[in-house]
Amino acid sequence: MGNYLKFELDRAFRNRRMAAALSVGFALSLWHLRDYVLPVRGYVLSGDYPLSAFGKWMGGENYSLQAALYFMWIPILCALPHGGSFAFDCAGGYGNQAATRLGWRAYLGAKYLAVFLSGAAVAVLPLAFDFLATNLFLPAVRPQAGLGLFPIGAEGFLGDLYYAHPLLYLLVYLAMDGLFYGLFTTVSLFASLWTRNRFAVLLAPVLAYLLLYGLGTTTGQLAACPAGYLRPSQLFVPKLPWLLGELALLLAAGAAFFGFFRKAERGLL
Prior knowledge:
By secondary structure, this protein is mostly helical. The chain has helices at residues 2-13, 16-37, 53-56, 65-79, 85-92, 94-102, 104-134, 159-164, 166-192, 198-219, 226-229, 240-259, 261-267. It has one domain.
């Protein structure tokens, strides 16, 4: 499986769709830097308490259009590089050949890992770039709870960590974003079991994402909305039961992908 996983990762990361998805993410970051960071870079010299990169980067605030666009539609970009590859392989006969040579479980395992990692990379790399770029213009001053300049309350999710060790908080949150967005991307694999339409397969992750968003906003359970709780600025404060419940739901979709692979063999190959 190791050699085939390497081959599948190469397919996932070295293609034009990956370049396009990352380009859109980086473009949103640069747009955000132009509109919200560069205009205030001179504030450092004003003599007042300096604005902090922790509160001004795209993942650290709740007011910019660019951040809203990024966290609402990022599942589409995550699915673009490799989310439709299983449906494509099945429709073209490649999946049948790979499964015959490797065995179904090895083939599906490599496919799942490649889709997961490609989605996580598309979600996290532009955010990491944005934070580092923001640090070129604003100092990484440790947030202070009493100033009112930072969106996270001390009672928020990991609030104590945010104010005590903000860089560690950022790394933990980026890891959580990579985990969730990677798992949302694998919903495209579950959708591939039921349809050959590659467009529908690519849309499956964002449809699941928006379904949870709609559920949370209509019921008042905002902690169920991934577009809010996956923002490091915590537009909606995460709650552990919802986090674990949605994590279990996404993992169950992956388990169903492996469990129903015989259906894929009959219906798609």
